[in-house]
Design a protein that fits this description.
CATH superfamily: Cytochrome P450
Helix content: 40-55%
Low-confidence stretches: 176-180
CATH architecture: Orthogonal Bundle
InterPro entries: Cyt_P450, Cyt_P450_CS, Cyt_P450_E_grp-IV, Cyt_P450_sf, Cytochrome_P450_Monooxygen
Distance between the termini: 93 Å
Strand order of the largest sheet: 1-2-7-4-3
Subcellular location: Membrane
Number of helices: 20
Mean pLDDT: 84
Cofactor: heme
Main location: membrane
Keywords: Heme, Iron, Membrane, Metal-binding, Monooxygenase, Oxidoreductase, Transmembrane, Transmembrane helix
Largest sheet: 5 strands, mixed
Amino acid sequence: MEVVLLCFLVVFLVLVAVWTLKTVNWLWLKPMKMKKYLKKQGIDGPSYKLFYGNLKEIVSMMKKARSKPMELSHHIAPRLLPFDDQTVKVYGKMFVSWIGPTPRLNIMDPELIREILSNKFGHFGKVRSNPLGKLLATGLVSYQDEKWVKHRRIINPAFHQEKLKMMLPAFYACCSFRFIPTKRNRKMKEIHREVHTLLRVMIEKREKAMKSGKASSDDLLGILMESNFKEIKEGGNAKNLGMSIDDVIEECKLFYFAGQETTSTLLVWTMIVLSMHPEWQVKAREEVLRVFGRDKPNFEGLNHLKVVTMILNEVLRLYPPGIMLTRVTYKTIELGNLRLPPHVELSLPIILVHHDRELWGEDAEEFNPERFSEGISNATKNQVSFFPFGWGPRICIGQAFALTEAKMALAMILQNFWFELSATYTHAPFTIVTLQPQHGAQLILHKL
């Protein structure tokens, strides 16, 4: 009996010793080795703290930045990414910080951003989604490898220009209420099971109607399902082709959360910015009335709104929907002059790049739509310094969709109202999924 107990004790102690060594290696030895490895290549950063890395400083600085509003200006990066903004000033644009024991490399060089987002050799992947993201929506944005390729192929036709043109009546019908961030819309985002059930019923009804030839495909769901049926039919009804109903549900949820959230926040920020710069509101309204008069906006006319497009691009530069992209190295790779091992997170801080004076000039923090008067390529000098919807093969598939919706909504508002900031408006940009006003957007609309 004593021998058995002794054996159990020895095994237990061995397991504890192994676990302790692995934990020490994970929490201290590996980070220290990585820090030394990167420093040899000229990359430095804040010191690593056991277990937390730099998380305590990041959270503390974020809380402090959000605790009070800021002046009415576009210099918002210190409020949104205070840790990164301060660290750039100390260590330069490329530095390493620590999310727990995981190294995160800050990248702001447009050429390196191009290399990472183009991902020609499949060396860079998406960082694993958090549980909240999975609850709200997975879909195309979170998929990798073959599943991403399949879903992208099926969904892509839904966003071709001719399909967007077909959906314009639906845009017009919903622009009066869909983009307003009401309590009801916020509540909708919190409900998972009800949304899933509702979409399943909707999809099954549409599926039956399409099979009987009674359904139209002039909206996003119809076009998506039509493309899915075509994929399955062309593949001879093979099992792995096409998307299941659950897959379609996830894509619909993604389009709702990503599409509506992105478009509504873009519209809100545009109205805030045009209230701050009324001379540009006048220019935009004059263009809309010159193109459409008081008539319903049409697809061809929307494509001729040069001033409105310039304004939207400048708002996307100053207030991008997402303020950061992250990738992770899959294997040991060469990135520029660097050699990086697997499992290094790469942070691409969109907000810092979009506000970088070395890339955009001394007026980088100012609202100047004229910089986009000759298009995005000319404004960026063909660099990857403007990527509000991402870049490369994983660029947001709904980019044209979102911009068309935003143009339609803004054109309708400009036709009927002029607007200004209320005295109660507090300028406090912050992020929950997307960049939005922390205390809402109190605007006064005056009927024309």
